[in-house]
User: Fold Low temperature requirement protein A from Micromonospora deserti.
Amino acid sequence: MPAAALGAPTFLLLYGLLRLVDGLDGDRGPGWAWNVGHTFFLVAFVLFAVLLVGLRRLLLAAAPRQRVLTEAATALGLAGTAGFLWVILGDLFPALADAAPLPDPAMVLGPLLFQAGILTLLVQTATARLLPAWTPVLVVLGFVPIAVNLDLLPLGAALILGGLLPLQRLRDGAAG
Assistant:
């Protein structure tokens, strides 16, 4: 889980930077920066899924009485992650997007489900005193610039990375 906690926002940061590079010519679209950036975006969300599952495992061991909330938050986060992966794969492979477009309600709900899931798990982890209270706060602050303007994605990713840094000390389902 510690590798996913650092890797996910780092790959998100790299995607954000390549997104800016891709737009320097006034157009965003297929090309090396687009393809490499979206590949980094894909890896980021695979790692976010790993992080969600790792937080679930940690919380089930540390706070078993919150099992229902933990399971629900994990399910929401993974559903949102699946939506992101669907869109990213559609961006990388336009034929896939044409064959299986993501329904509009899922386009809106996906990011919200992901954010609600991961933030709930982070708040639970902080409440269990396994992480500092500022961890979920910094992650929320990272989501804000991304929601305002996708060109602020590198800033948002850096804030999320800062928020997830304390997860480096958590190993094998226990604080260490």
